[in-house]
Backbone:
């Protein structure tokens, strides 16, 4: 059974051991600016690194105002902003949602935060909203992200050629991954096993 369409566009707080997901707001700008201080994490992003509070606020506003749902990722150990992540391409009729536009600070990578964030988002998608399919879109050259999606159980479906334009003006081929509702129970167990203890 699927949730009503308006529920798919809500951003409730999602609580984990490593990370909490809270609705993304402009008051997260200072923390986001600190988390986003490393140019290397923007190599595959389709938006530029914010370098001032104003730019961070503008970036947040752009995600809050576009179709979809955006959450700030809060490190449970330090109560600091680790980054943000979103649902997009939300389709309650066909019970499908995409997860992406994830920005996570370099010092928060490989800490379990991103893995648990995906666990929280997948749990909401499949167990609360009633999704039958969750999707990821990854730059064909972004090997770390492709590995990360496969590690949590995303199945590679194919490549969308010249799908979107990168910031540098080049065309990006996009690898599409998905997870289905009947795959979720097994993958949920595997993701929980992969999470590092605090």
Residues:
């Amino acid at each position: 059974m699927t949730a009503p369409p308006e529920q798919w566009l809500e951003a409730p707080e999602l609580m984990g051991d490593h990370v909490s997901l809270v609705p993304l707001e402009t008051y997260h700008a200072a923390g986001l600016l600190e988390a986003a201080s490393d140019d290397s994490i923007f190599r595959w992003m389709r938006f530029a690194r914010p370098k001032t509070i104003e730019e961070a606020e503008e970036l947040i506003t752009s995600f809050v105002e576009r179709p979809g749902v955006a959450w700030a990722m809060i490190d449970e150990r330090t109560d600091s902003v680790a980054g943000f992540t979103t649902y997009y391409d939300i389709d309650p009729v066909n019970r499908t949602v995409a997860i992406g536009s994830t920005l996570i600070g370099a010092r928060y990578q490989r800490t379990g935060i991103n893995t648990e964030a995906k666990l929280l988002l997948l749990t909401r998608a499949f167990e609360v909203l009633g999704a039958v399919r969750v999707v990821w879109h990854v730059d064909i050259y972004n090997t770390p992200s492709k590995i990360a999606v496969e590690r949590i159980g995303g199945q590679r479906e194919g490549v969308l050629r010249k799908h979107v334009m990168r910031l540098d003006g080049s065309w990006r081929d996009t690898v599409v991954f998905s997870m289905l509702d009947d795959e979720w129970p097994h993958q949920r167990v595997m993701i929980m096993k992969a999470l590092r203890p605090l």
Observations:
- The first strand starts at residue 14 and ends at 15.
- Residues 113-129 form the longest helix (17 residues).
